[in-house]
Design brief:
Chains A, B: This is Aminotransferase class I/classII large domain-containing protein. Two copies of one chain form a homodimer. By secondary structure, chain A is of the alpha+beta class. Helices cover about 35% and strands about 10% of the residues of chain A. In chain A, helix 3 runs antiparallel to helix 10, helix 4 runs parallel beside helix 10 and helix 11 packs parallel to helix 13.
Chain lengths: ~450, ~450
């Protein structure tokens, strides 16, 4: 499941990640409560979680190996399994209904031929003596690293070897251990607090229409890691240059590291920064991770990258990139050569043109969805800069609205509260879908809310 | 770089892996010294390690984030960088020499067309509306999991959903955190002890000709994890059914978990178990990891798998597979759909035939190398069950022999002592190479040692 179902933004106190000091190295964790919380991270990720009952097996023998107690802190999947459960129940109730899913954020359109042709050629080459290649560099092929730099980071002071090619942003984030579930697994968070629906030791940054979907940094305590996703999923909000300049300054004042998820950058219509590294000084405080998934439909092909500038240093002056490189070399063996051939094709002039056409198609879907809800008098957010429309139903329960839409229109959306209490009263409508389905869904929305 | 450059066998006391309890949960670690040690794990893995000097940059600003002190325990890469340094120096000295590399264990032969054709078709399908697919299951496609089970684990009591498809055994092992460098990074080992060339809190299991390359379990202390690689790299030794039966019993008596690396199983000539699960009771104490890399030349395509039986339980009765599944779902997004299409083709009747032909070719190389050294009066080990020949030069320094062979024959091998002190007096000759190069190298060996 996609990384950018890492919703809203969060900052993490300390870490026991492969490259950050373990919690034990810290005297104390702040665990102040914010008025807004992240969902248990696995919601969109792990669709097959054990319940204690399931876990029991008839086997008598047990090893003497203790389970990692941190695993027990993980909350069972809820949002997407629950959405799926309700969709299935609905299909049983209305076996003949044409159910349309605008819920989960998975790509639906074919990969442009110019890209798949290159991948296909690479596969064929692997069966020839001249074209065969074995192990590649863990950091990715030089040509691809160079193409990513020149395409996305030209004139931003980023070098080719600052780019680490990965099998997807989610995997890199987990290697970074900035990922909430990973953080829980590594024991850097406290228990999940059901009352506030958040893990202890993680500061949740409130992003709502009231604050323009940008946190009040004056109220944010210092943390080691600040995870920031822009354009954001699910709100679709993109931070402005002025906001990101404040974020970088905040990180610098606190000596924090920003992990910036820019996986939707090419979806931006506004003149917002496409990369955190457009902000002066960001190379000293930020890591950026991105992916080909939503640009070229590579959700299944698996290809992404992470930028770790040489200027980013630990408190002892050791470059973060050196340790990240070591972690990548130790825990990863490079992205598939076929996927990398596809990535290289994505960044060719024809590939870029084709990628932008796919993105343009999804943005077209987004406009149709936004126009529909706007014309019905709803307040909608996002959309302009991300393939998600965040529709406001003031005073109503997200799950009630979700159920109403499903019951009356046979369209599956995602209840905002599933992303956390701050999402209450909102529903996320995904723009990933075939045009016909999106048009049909909007026609039904108009009938329901006319 | 390949997982099975995880040399010899090691057992690890406790763990702070994603699914094992952190060291803090243990009162004490055993750190008894064995007379044999593993190399610093990154040797074959990380070819770009920072030296403190390199690490320094002119940047003034530092974050307040502490570096993970465990990273500092990692030893700089030595063996393969050093082998490469000497090879390059040799090339400068003899610019016209035809240098042959039988050092590093990377595949050299093309991937059979029946396999690449399926991958190519999958790529083309991704550019069609019908053939496009997005996110797949983190655990891998049902059809591939079923094919792996029926091909490698028929009648062994393994279910399809015990199989977790990965982007390579190395990556899965790192997720398992049984991998030595990962273990160090997660803080489960002590400092590297230069005197004995080993990390504290890791028990090194002595595998030499004297004990038939199988450890004396009566001298082995109890550990949580026992990492066992058979057929072994670099010795090429494959454990017998009787030895593995003792290993399983040893694990059962101690309540340990065996992580069994069987990545060379199809190279076996002897009638040894291809899987640890051929041993009764193994499903209650073992995890098995394997890969398509050395079977189908997938070192760059990236595809492997790990088997975690439901019967394997933590001390509290919780199934290890449930937590491993959660880790995979959290830290991984599934292997590339293209690689999985290739894996499925590998396991078709034609694919299996083609894979065995490639393996047969490398086994042919191995025989040529073994015959050469045998006829020259050397004692050679391995070979019969793995693509590595372990040649004994009693009383001589591995590095001296390596240098002699390189100087006199322009052939690059790997000095045994680079894998650890127990390898002193041995040289590893890899069978991964084009036939012409192997024949030429052997011709030169005959001239040198006639």
């Amino acid at each position: 499941m996609p990384l950018h179902q890492f919703h809203f933004n969060a900052s993490i106190s300390s870490s026991s990640s492969p490259f950050l000091a373990p919690p034990s190295a810290f005297n104390s964790f702040s665990s102040r409560h914010q008025n807004f919380s992240l969902p248990p991270r696995d919601l969109g990720i792990c669709r097959c979680v054990a319940t204690p009952q399931e876990a029991k097996t008839p086997t008598a023998y047990k090893t003497n190996v203790s389970r990692n107690a941190n695993m027990g802190k993980l909350q069972a999947g809820y949002l997407f399994p629950e959405v799926a459960r309700r969709r299935n129940a609905h299909k049983e109730k209305y076996p003949d209904a044409q159910v349309i899913s605008l819920g989960i954020g998975d790509t639906t359109e074919p990969i442009p031929d110019v890209i798949t042709s290159s991948m296909s050629k690479k596969c064929q080459a692997l069966s020839t003596l001249e074209g065969y290649s074995g192990y590649g560099a863990e950091q990715g092929e030089k040509s691809l690293r160079a193409a990513i730099r020149s395409t996305f980071y030209a004139d931003l002071g980023i070098d080719d070897d600052d780019i680490f090619v990965s099998d997807g942003a989610k995997c890199d984030i987990s290697r970074l251990q900035a990922y909430v579930d990973s953080s829980v697994i590594m024991g850097q968070t406290g228990q999940f607090q059901t009352d506030v629906e958040k893990y202890a030791n993680i500061e949740y940054m409130n992003c709502t229409p009231e604050n323009g979907f940008f946190p009040d940094l004056s109220k944010s305590p210092r943390t080691d890691i600040i995870f920031f996703c822009s354009p954001n999923n699910p709100t679709g909000a993109a931070a402005t240059r002025e906001q990101l300049t404040r974020l970088v300054q905040f990180a610098k004042d606190n000596g924090s590291i920003i992990v910036y998820d820019s996986a939707y950058a090419l979806y931006m219509s506004d003149d917002n920064p496409r990369s955190i590294f457009e902000i002066p000084g960001a190379r000293e405080v930020a890591i950026e991770t991105s992916s080909f998934s939503k640009y070229a439909g590579f959700t299944g092909v698996r290809l992404g990258w992470t930028v770790v500038p040489k200027e980013l240093l630990f408190s002892d002056g050791f470059p973060v990139a050196r340790d990240f490189n070591r972690v990548v070399c130790t825990c990863f063996n490079g992205a598939s050569t076929v996927a990398q051939a596809g990535g290289l094709a994505c960044l060719s002039p024809e590939g870029l043109k084709a990628m932008h056409e796919v993105i343009g198609f999804y943005k077209g879907n987004t406009e149709i969805i936004m126009d529909t809800f706007n014309s019905l008098g709803f307040k909608v957010y996002g959309g302009r800069n991300a393939p998600y429309v965040w529709v406001h139903f003031p005073g109503r329960s997200s799950w009630d609205v979700f159920a109403e839409i499903l019951e009356k229109t046979h369209v599956v959306t995602t209840p905002g509260s599933g992303f956390g209490p701050g999402g209450e009263g909102f529903v996320r409508v995904s723009a990933f879908g075939h045009r016909g389905n999106v048009l049909e869904a909007c026609k039904r929305f108009r009938q329901l809310y006319k």
